[in-house]
Design brief:
The structure holds two protein chains of two kinds. Chain A folds into two domains: about 1-85 and about 165-250, 3-Layer(aba) Sandwich (Rossmann fold); about 95-160, no CATH class. By secondary structure, chain A is of the alpha/beta class. The termini of chain A are far apart. In chain A, α8 crosses α9. Chain A is about 35% helix and about 25% strand. A six-stranded mixed sheet of chain A has the order 6-7-8-3-9-10, with helices on both faces. In chain A, strands 2-1-4-5 form a four-stranded antiparallel sheet, with helices on one face. The longest helix of chain B is centred in the middle third of the chain and has 39 residues, at about 200-240. Chain B has two domains: about 5-95, STAS domain (Transcription Regulator spoIIAA); about 135-375, no CATH class. Chain B is elongated and about 110 Å long. Chain B is built from twelve helices and five strands. In chain B, strands 1, 2, 3, 4 and 5 form a five-stranded mixed sheet that branches. Chain B has helices at about 35-40, 60-75, 90-95, 115-150, 155-165, 170-195, 200-240, 245-250, 255-290, 295-305, 310-335, 340-375, and strands spanning about 5-10, 15-25, 50, 55-60, 80. In chain B, about 70% of the residues lie in helices and about 5% in strands. The termini of chain B are far apart. By secondary structure, chain B is of the alpha/beta class. Classes of the chains: A alpha/beta, B alpha/beta. Chains A and B meet through α4 and α6 of A and α2, α3 and α12 of B.
């Protein structure tokens, strides 16, 4: 299923807030059908990197290429077209609270397709079925639980059958079972729809169960330390910080307190 | 892109074979499933449903929604569906979609109540919110008692900040509005009074109108839109973020901590703003008077000083104290009663401003009647 056709490439990407550099010189390639993990300790700029990839924050320098086309160097209009291929699940779901779940999903469909209202309703119902929320079309986000909000957010992200799905901390705030179910769902969607998935997370369980490619960001050196299959990085990467992170500090001999990044 | 087609036929063993071909993409024109349903509704219903997809091109959600509709139709009529003819991806998506059973009682039918029931419901809701308002007022009174006896927990720095926001930071807009109101009054006064040769009484008109009525009411309406709304939005957002619950669990009374300092801030600042507004209005009127009338500066000032009595000043100040409390209460009460969504914050902000202005106008009328009867 997974061919190795590069779909997203980051080249010399530097992201900064004003003069404050968050991460510099990031270089990685995401292939079609990958589940790509952006990982690293808290505060290393994982979410900011995601924002640079989906067009919310312009990088200080460098470029992200989608199918070989530069993203930030292109015109606003071309960028909008590229963004149409994305689906994004935000950390807390970010559902629009004034709309029902069905309306949340329908907004993009109404905007970008010529479907009739009945068809849109069917599509919304189907997307909710996929994430296990059958029959919840007419609920408002405030009426459902946090885990359900997340799944509804995923249904909304999938509304337009995106080629690439971005997840910001999908399992944060979920119980282990729900987190695992979400992981399974991500894999299932990747396999059935051939979607490329980019996930920001620091949950080791998720990283190893779904990821087949990754980039490791380090808050100390402010750059990437490693990129590749997270399981291989865990076992064979020469850098202690990378192995340590992926083995929950077990790679570090001596004082385990040093394993906690400052 | 080839057009999507759907044909169905009965096989020898009486199963219904649905043939799908072409590109089944959402953006294309997809055929409906009426033909399938018609076959299913025949007296001799098909024993099972099979799919043939040899000529199926690309597919996306469009195919899946159709398949789900076929599935639902078959389930209702207890016909088995064989999915083996479908592409593998579609099969697993179907499995995923039907993996979680619809939760019992989850689906809601839109309820349309008859008119009488809706009237009753609205009345009931109005009663509930009136009760809430009463409870809130009671809590505020109790909280004021705690403030008076010094047992309330709040942040002094918060209070200082509220005073600054409702006081000094409101000066520019107050200056603008009251100055212009004073000018408008003077224009009207000069036009009318000059006809009787009583142009100099414009000074009296402007001064008394500003001090007794216009400055208190205009600053109060201004503050209802400016500060009352911000109180409702602040407290409402805190409610949405469960920050108020966090205060309660810490043993802090949210009324003491959030509401009373704001009420005190407006109670203190509103009369000062109103006094300042009166002065600005009189200045604005004086500008117009001096230009349009044939009077000197000293004469106009003299006329103004003689016109305004102390009771005028006190009655105006008392009004603005009442307005200040009402505006702050409207803002805070709506904030505390806010629902739990972004929409609800907007609604309670709107309600806070409307309620504030209505309360201002009602209390202004009541106070004016009382003043007249007491001959103040």
């Amino acid at each position: 299923m997974v061919d190795t056709q590069p779909q997203i490439t980051a080249r010399d990407l530097t992201i900064a807030f004003g003069d404050f550099v968050v991460q510099r010189d990031l270089n990685f390639t995401i292939n079609r059908g990958d589940v790509f993990i952006i990982m690293g300790g808290s505060g290393c700029g994982k979410s900011t990197l995601l924002k640079a990839m989906i067009g919310l924050k312009r990088p200080a320098s460098g470029e992200v290429y989608y199918d070989g086309e530069p993203f930030w160097a292109s015109s606003e209009r071309e960028r909008e077209d590229t963004k149409r291929k994305f689906g994004t699940l935000f950390q807390a779901g970010a559902l629009w609270s004034s709309m029902t779940l069905a309306e949340n999903i329908s907004l993009a469909l109404k905007q970008y397709t010529d479907l009739s209202n009945a068809q849109i309703r069917e599509v919304a119902a189907y997307k909710l079925m996929l994430v296990g929320l059958t029959g919840f079309e007419d609920y408002y986000p405030s009426e459902i639980s946090g885990g359900m909000k997340k799944r509804a957010g995923l249904a909304r992200a999938m509304a337009l059958d995106p080629e690439i799905l971005f997840f910001d901390e999908p399992s944060a705030g979920l119980d282990p079972l729900s987190a695992k179910r979400l992981d399974d769902l991500i894999l299932e969607l990747r396999d059935s729809l051939d979607t490329t998935v980019v996930v920001v997370t620091h949950e080791l369980a998720s990283i190893f169960s779904i990821g087949n490619n990754s980039v490791f960001l380090d808050p100390e050196t402010k750059t990437q330390l490693a990129t590749g299959d997270p399981r291989k990085l865990r076992d064979h990467h020469p850098d202690l910080a990378v192995r340590n992170f992926l083995q929950r500090g077990a790679a570090l001999e001596g004082d385990p307190a040093e394993a906690i990044p400052a | 892109m080839t057009a999507a087609t759907l044909t169905c036929r009965r096989s020898d063993d009486d199963s219904l074979i649905i043939t799908l071909s072409g590109d089944w993409l959402l953006r294309g024109d997809l055929p409906g499933i009426e033909a399938v349903l018609q076959e299913m509704n025949q007296p001799a219903k098909p024993s099972s449903i099979d799919f043939e997809t040899a000529d199926l091109g690309g597919w996306d959600t469009g195919l899946l929604t159709t398949l789900i509709a076929v599935h639902r139709g078959a389930n209702d009529r207890e016909i088995t569906v064989h999915e083996s003819g479908l592409p593998e991806g579609a099969r697993s998506l179907l499995a995923l979609a039907f993996a979680v059973k619809e939760r019992e009682g989850a689906r809601r039918a839109p309820v349309k109540l008859p008119l009488l029931a809706r009237v009753g419901q609205t009345t009931g809701e109005a009663l509930v919110s009136a009760r809430e308002l009463l409870t809130f007022t009671g809590e505020l009174v109790l909280s004021s008692y705690r403030f008076a006896t010094g047992t309330a927990t709040y942040l002094r720095s918060d209070l200082a900040q509220h005073i600054q926001e409702a006081g000094a930071e409101a000066l520019p807009i107050t200056t603008l509005i009251t100055f212009l109101i004073g000018m408008i009054f003077a224009f009207v006064g000069v036009m009318q009074l000059q006809q009787f040769g009583a142009g100099i009484y414009t000074a009296d008109l402007v001064a008394i109108a500003m001090v007794r009525e216009m400055a208190p009411i205009m600053t109060a309406i201004l503050m209802a839109g400016r500060t009352g709304a911000s109180y409702a939005a602040q407290i409402g957002t805190m409610k949405v973020n469960e920050e108020i619950d966090a205060l309660t669990t810490l043993g802090l009374n949210p009324i003491d901590f959030l509401v009373t300092p704001r009420v005190i801030a407006l109670l203190l600042m509103m009369p000062l703003l109103s006094l300042y507004g009166s002065a600005m209005g009189i200045l604005g009127g004086m500008g117009v008077g001096l230009v349009m009338l044939d009077v000197g500066l000293m004469q106009y000032v003299q006329q103004t000083v003689e016109a305004v009595e102390q009771t005028d000043l006190w009655s105006g100040l008392f009004k603005s104290v009442v307005f200040g409390v009402l505006v702050a209460m409207a803002g805070c009460q709506q904030g505390m009663a806010c629902g739990d969504s972004a929409l609800a914050v907007g609604q309670s902000t709107t309600k806070a401003v409307v309620m504030g202005i209505v309360l201002i106008v009602i209390s202004a009328s009541v106070l004016t009647i009382i003043y007249i009867n007491l001959d103040i």
